[in-house]
Amino acid sequence: MPSKDPSTLTTLLDRYLERFPAQSELRKGMALHRLPEILGPGMAQACVAAKFEGNVLVIKVTDPGWRHEMHLMRYRIRQRLNDTVGSDLVSEVRVRG
User: Which end of the chain has fewer CB atoms within 10 angstroms, the N or the C?
Assistant: First the structure.
């Protein structure tokens, strides 16, 4: 009897997400959950709110210095979020005050 190698948790999760009816919404939730980790402690603390408008992530920041810093890093934030959730979910990051 041949033994089958066990699948990794990541592989199992990817298979599940492929068949999940609302996978886009689930991935958006995953991205929002991981956002503080991706931004780092200083930027995450400056965030007041974050939400999706379609595939655009909108981050609200009240501090002008952090808002400018996030605006400069918006392409890197988008790439890191997409890498984290394993898809091109985030098409753009907008930083608002």
Answer: N
78 assigned to some structural domain: yes
Specify the 3-state DSSP secondary structure of 55: coil
Q: Can you point out the beta strands (E) in the chain?
A: 47-53, 56-61, 92-96
Tokens describing residue 5: 């190698």
Q: What residues pair up with 50 in beta bridges, in sequence order? A: 59
Q: What is the pLDDT of residues 3-20, one digit of tens each?
A: 577 788 878 877 877 777
Question: In the chain, which stretches have pLDDT less than 70?
Answer: 1-3
pLDDT at 33: 94
**Is residue 51, in this structure, part of any structural domain at all?**
yes
Report the alpha-carbon distance of residue 22 to residue 87 in Å, rounded: 14
Asked if the structure places residue 62 within a domain, the reply is: yes
- Answer yes or no: is 35 within a domain: no
Domain boundaries, position 74? 47-97
pLDDT of 2: 54
